[in-house]
Amino acid sequence: MTTAFPEWVEPMAATLTQERFNRPDWIFEQKFDGIRVLAFKQGRGVRLFSRNRLPLNYPTVIEALADLPASEVILDGEVTHAGGGVTYHVFDLLWLGGRDVTTLPLDARRGLLNDLSLQPPLERVTALEDPRPWERARAEGWEGVIAKRRDSTYEHRRSPLWLKMKCEVARDLVVGGFTDPQGRRVGLGALLVGYFDGADGADFVFAGKVGTGLDTKMLLDLRARLDALEIAAAPFTKAVGLPRLRAHWVRPEIVVQVAFIEWTVHGKLRHPRLLGVQA
User: 85-96 and 122-124 as β-strands: parallel, antiparallel, unpaired?
Assistant: First the structure.
């Protein structure tokens, strides 16, 4: 039974993660800072769409896709602009020659994609072999890396089988308080951190909560150190969004290093995680 060539395929999206890992059942790819593009080729007819199904027009990409020997193909990838030209970085194959291949595992889809003869400006996205690819991403100025389960099928949703690890920046911040632990967590819930700003560092500005990156030993050790510094009132002089419940305040003496993606429009840390605590 022949399956009809689809007019549209909902793209698979990666889930943002703060984890950093490298395991053999996952592959890692460069995360490009471009435009997500799904390409539909039927005969010599080619249609390009954004992830929101908006039609796109990249003449050189369309011409190269039309020249592919396969009669029916659906590709997923990202278009970047450089030096006046465009490159279509292809990272997945969803349809080939009358067959829906989204139910195949990623490794099998990549094998089929490797058999396609892609000519510039089409470029196949290769797997990264670095033991710590997120560090290479930061060093080379990439947006980040994408981690994908080798056995993952192509899911038409935001999936935990694809993870995006965005490049982070790190900054030393000062602990001004903490929240109580909830559920099975011990020690403390999150650190309330800030930085000194203004003339002569007169303002202690609240920068947000950090609850990721602490293991059990660190949670217990930090709670003991913070209990010894507890004070009655919040030390922050500029503080929007401080928690009102289960919060404790401390003298701002403990310095921690925090990694985060960016500052929010409200001046808070986006997706922070603890890297370390100064002795």
Answer: parallel
* Domain boundaries 13-166, CATH class: alpha beta
Closest C-alpha to 26, from 107, 121, 117, 116: 107
Tens of pLDDT, residues 218-273: 999 999 999 999 999 999 999 988 998 899 999 999 999 999 988 999 999 998 99
Question: Could you give the CA distance from residue 75 to residue 259 in angstroms, rounded to a whole number?
Answer: 35
Architecture of domain 169-277: Beta Barrel (2.40)
Instruction: Round to whole Å and give the CA distance between 24 and 163.
Output: 15
Do the beta carbons of residue 164 and residue 143 sit within 8 Å? no
Residues labelled as active-site residues: 31
Burial of 276: CB neighbours in 10 Å, binned 0-12, 13-18, 19+: middle
Strands (E) in 137-254, as ranges, are: 144-149, 158-166, 169-179, 191-197, 203-210, 230-231, 247-250
Would you give the DSSP letter of residue 217? H
Q: How far apart are CA 170 and CA 211, in angstroms?
A: 15
Q: Return the residue matching tokens 């003449």.
A: 59
Q: Which two tokens stand for residue 247?
A: 């919060």
Write the pLDDT tens digit of every residue in 58-79: 999 999 999 999 999 999 999 9
- Per-domain residue ranges of the chain: 13-166, 169-277
